[in-house]
Amino acid sequence: MINIEKLQRDLDELPEEAQELLIDFVEILKKRYSSSNQQETSENLTLEERRAFLKLPLSEPRHILSQQAEEMENHYRQNTDWKEFLAGNIIDY
């Protein structure tokens, strides 16, 4: 369970710039998890959201990209239509 009071104290101790980054990050998370279609959400990010993403500590984008890579791996394991493109001969034109 999240201790809201401790979280509030921790936030209050951060510099204003870090607090603003957290606010931006929370907005990104709210939009990401409020939508049932993750791909649609990522295509509709505003410029401010994209900038906030770029300002995140390096571990956060790595975590997000890791999750996306796992999702794509699962997608390609379940949907094997892409293998048909690899089965034919290569034709030089």
Automatic annotation (TrEMBL):
<protein>
    <recommendedName>
        <fullName>DUF2281 domain-containing protein</fullName>
    </recommendedName>
</protein>
